[in-house]
Amino acid sequence: MRLNFFKYLYPHKKLLWFGIIIAGGLTSLDGIVSPYIIGTLTNILMAKHFNRVPQILVLYLVLFLIITISYWIWQLLWAKARQAANLRMRADVFDHFLDSPSTERIEKVNNFVNVDVKQIEGQYVNSVVNLVYCIEQAVFSLIYVISINGIVSMAFLICGLLPFLVPRFTRNWVEGSSEIWNKSYEDYNLTLNEALRGFPVIKHFNVSDIFKKRVNQKLAREENKYWQMSYCSSTASFCSQLSYALSSIAALSVGVLFVVNGQVNVGELISLFLASDRLTSPIITISQVFNQLNTTTPLIKENSILNSKQIAINNLTIASQNSIINFQNCQLGYQNQALLKNVDFTINPHEKVLIVGRSGIGKSTLFKTLLNEIPLISGTIKVAPNVANNFGVVGQESYIFSDTLRFNLTLGRKIADEKLITILKKVDLEKFARLKALDQKLGKSGLSLSGGERRKIELARALLAKKEILLVDEGLSGLDKKSSQKIFDLIMTFPGTVLEIEHIIGKEQSMQYDQLIDLNQKQYQVE
Ligand SMILES: Nc1ncnc2c1ncn2[C@@H]1O[C@H](COP(=O)(O)OP(=O)(O)OP(=O)(O)O)[C@@H](O)[C@H]1O
């Protein structure tokens, strides 16, 4: 688990972590400076050597200043480490998502960025910095107490180790509770998000009460698991605290015995007592930090988005051939369950192909397979070398970003305004074909578009990107007659190849395609 942290954060910020160790080390000297000054002052005052008091106080001031400045620097570097961790985790998770995106992973990414990162920052990054500091303080204090009296310091050390053993017994328990909470949080978040997005359905069907109950049940479960996690963590800490109290008393008793026997003086006992607290309290903190690390570990360890790059799907075999796409005896479907079999067809360059079939037969599945979104179950799809990654897609649900019309058309690439305007006219979006309209905001807080307009923007995107092959999934549905005819004409004059899925299409229009693939045919059906 600790390896994960270093894998993600340490290699990129070596100097920063070096600074944290040095500044933390100087700050941790606080653990021996006060005990030393108080013990020495006690002995000076008891021996009535008052002339040495100013010298000790100046030394105290100098050391105090060094510690305070180190503490300030340490805090700044700590904040930098948090910043680095946040930046890296958030950037990584999005990069990994885009390397192999899927709808199922959206919720996970949202969860990670909004919740897990904060928890990792609070409990993991802070814990590791704290851990380093505590180790330094414990080591310095140990050296100091040994220099006063070896045997008494050994008593403090042995007693100090007792609390360190406790988390070993509580670790699995604490980790398990965190995993359970994490799962129930994801479950609640999914239910809530679905209810938020599905509000029109909830409203139209008048089922608000059912959904309130449904979401609140998940919330209650999630909060219950959160409480159980806090209970496990607090109880584990309580056990550590208890063992700490017992060990401190035992160690102090040994010290008192040594004073009674005259082997240690009063000033030394005070120094030993104060410094030993700085020895055992970092040790107890170390054990508490381990508990915190354990609760956060599942977030990092189990986060498939952060930890593993998913293997990219590649269904397409590149081959030099006359045809542009060649399906050979393919089986298509999900999780190795075929929906369509014996899929065998050839598409030649520039052909306009119409794919039909009843609802749910697997038309969109065929597109998803071509786009490498789902794996091909068996068979071969041979494509010409210029085809891979050269698909333009006009889908059933067009995606509009909350940005300008220009951004939605270009997706950030540089394309001349005149070209954008020409394309807008081409796709029958005359009312946006003006310079001013290009900078109009669309999407969430901007202009709302009709379903047909969204489709046209998506088609314009595909035309602008000059893709070799256009995949159109019900591009004409929901459009009025004029728009439908215009889009149909555009598709028919598209300079490359077109594969188009349509449900409802006039006989006259369907006759104009070069090829018709009817998935209703028996040869494709899986019994
Ligand atoms: N991710 C998935 N996992 C498992 N099954 C799925 C998944 N996506 C779709 N399916 C199922 O695959 C079948 C075919 O779906 P597909 O979307 O390809 O049909 P379609 O022919 O395009 O239908 P429509 O014309 O209604 O859009 C459906 O029964 C659907 O429930």
Structure in words:
By secondary structure, the chain is of the alpha/beta class. It has two domains: 2-307, ABC transporter transmembrane region fold; 316-524, Rossmann fold (3-Layer(aba) Sandwich), CATH 3.40.50.300. 64% of the residues lie in helices and 10% in strands. A five-stranded parallel beta sheet has the order 6-7-8-4-9, sandwiched between helices. The radius of gyration is 34 Å and the shape is elongated. The two termini are 48 Å apart. The model has no long low-confidence stretch (mean pLDDT 85). This is ABC transporter, ATP-binding protein. The chain crosses the membrane at residues 15-38, 58-79, 142-166. It is found in: Cell membrane.
Labels describing this entry:
Rossmann fold; ATP hydrolysis activity; ATP binding; alpha/beta; ATPase-coupled lipid transmembrane transporter activity; ABC transporter transmembrane region fold; 527 residues; binds adenosine-5'-triphosphate; ABC transporter, ATP-binding protein; 9 strands; 4-stranded mixed β-sheet; 17 helices
Write the H/E string, N to C: HHHHHHHHHHEEEEHEEHHHHEHEHE
Low-confidence stretches: none
Strand order of the largest sheet: 6-7-8-4-9
Mean pLDDT across the residues is 85
Q: Give the termini distance in whole angstroms.
A: 48 Å
What is the C-alpha radius of gyration, as a whole number of Å? 34 Å
